[in-house]
Amino acid sequence: SIEQWKRRNENAAYLTSQLKACPGVVPQKLYEGTESGSFYLYTMGYRKEHFNNVDRAVFLKALAAEGINLSPYIPNGLHREPWVDHILELKGYQKMYSPTRLKQYRETLACPVCDKICSEEMLMLWASGPLLGTKADMDDIVNAIMKVYENRDQITKVDL
After folding, report:
1. What value does the CA radius of gyration of the chain take, rounded to a whole number of Å?
2. Nearest CA among 152, 142, 143 for reference residue 27
3. Model-level pTM?
4. What are the residues whose beta carbons fall under 8 Å from the beta carbon of 8, sequence distance 6 or more?
5. CA 122, CA 74: separation in Å to the nearest integer?
6. 63: part of which helix (H) or strand (E)?
7. Which residues of the chain have pLDDT under 70?
């Protein structure tokens, strides 16, 4: 609904404004001239150099201990998901492209930046539900992230 869309945009804008205080978490940006987003997901980049170089998994565990569960998204980029092979095996693709071209596509489908982002850097509020929360809910997310950031010297003590 339009009300949910407005709430997600308001909460996303609020989170983005509040998370500017944490250099280790970089919210998804809206490009200049863009006034809103769908915000079905709210994504952020994790910069481990600001958290004593601990892996994202350790950061996520520390955050979960504060009651906030962010998702690491998917372990690999979408280009590595099984649906890619499924699509390439469809009769339509088999008609449009030669076996040699389809093989070449599979063998050259390299997206190293996507791989790095998905496996090491991406954080997100999964689905739109959390963004339909109250401002207090958004404050809980920000406060937990800031608490982990402020206590980053202790983060190496987190067990996986």
Report:
1. 19
2. 142
3. 0.81
4. 38, 39, 40, 128, 131, 132
5. 9
6. helix 56-65
7. 160
